[in-house]
Specification:
Blueprint: E1 12-14, E2 19-25, E3 31-38, E4 41-42, E5 44-49, E6 55-62, E7 65-73, E8 79-85
Antiparallel strand pairs: 1-2, 2-3, 3-4, 3-5, 5-6, 6-7, 7-8
């Protein structure tokens, strides 16, 4: 799944630890995705939304990699499917 996160400065607020709260918008101005970034890399809990504002997908990143439980929601915003993302094999 692509992140859809771009590198412009809109929607970013950085705290003293270097964590940036990123918000990406749909063309109509509604929230498309939101979550924290550290040094430009997705980190922590992220959510993606449909144009109507319902949550579409949510899950966790660690150093830019999807990790743990990821939930996909139906058009009513009800959890439809959960996928467990494992750490990539080192090698």
């Amino acid at each position: 799944m692509g992140t859809g996160v771009n590198d412009d400065d809109a929607g970013r607020v950085e705290d003293a630890r270097g964590v940036t709260e990123h918000v990406e918008l749909h063309r109509d101005g509604s929230v498309r995705a939101r979550g924290p970034m550290v040094d430009g890399v997705l980190e922590g809990y992220w959510e993606w939304f449909r144009l109507d504002g319902t949550r579409m997908r949510s899950g966790w990143f660690e150093h830019g990699e999807q990790l743990g439980e990821w939930t996909t929601y139906d058009r009513a915003g009800i959890a439809h499917k959960t996928t467990v993302m494992k750490r990539p094999a080192k090698g």
